[in-house]
Amino acid sequence: EEDLKGLPQDEADMMKIMGFGNFDSSKGKKVKGNDIYVANIPKKRRYRQYMNRRGGFNRPLDFIA
User: Fold this and answer.
1) What counts of helices (H) and strands (E) characterise the chain?
2) Distance between CA 61 and CA 47 in Å, rounded?
3) Cα(15)–Cα(21) distance, integer angstroms
4) Which of 1, 4, 50, 53 could cysteine-pair with 12, CB 3.0–4.6 Å?
5) Which contiguous run of DSSP H or E holds residue 10?
6) Distances (CA, A) of 25 to 9, 22, 28, 30
7) CA-CA distance, 52 to 26, in Å (whole number)?
8) Torsion-angle region of residue 32: left (phi > 0), alpha (psi -120 to 50) or beta?
9) Quick one: CA torsion of 22, 28, 34, 40, rounded to 10 degrees?
10) For residues 4 and 16, is the Cβ–Cβ distance under 8 A?
């Protein structure tokens, strides 16, 4: 409201409608709805040797946890 003083009424109304009334930073402030997040941590691939294993390739694969 204080920022709109000194402007013609039609310009002040237009600024209110468009949302230019006041700008403020959210730095250091709690923002509602901004606490939903998930960390995307890629897992390192574990490769399994199918051929050239002791005991041959036609047997069950070794267990990898």
Assistant:
1) 1, 0
2) 11
3) 6
4) 4
5) helix 9-18
6) 27, 10, 9, 11
7) 59
8) beta
9) 130
10) yes
Say which residue the tokens 């998930």 belong to.
38
CA 16, CA 2: separation in Å to the nearest integer? Answer: 12
Q: Quick one: tokens of 3?
A: 């920022």
Q: What is the pLDDT along the chain (65 residues), one digit of tens a residue?
A: 666 677 788 887 887 787 766 667 788 888 888 888 888 889 888 877 777 777 766 777 667 65
Residue 29 DSSP label: S
State how far the Cα of 15 lies from the Cα of 58, in Å rounded to an integer: 74
In order of 6, 9, 20, 25, 32, the CA distances from 3 in angstroms are: 8, 13, 10, 16, 25
Alpha helices in 19-57 (DSSP H): none
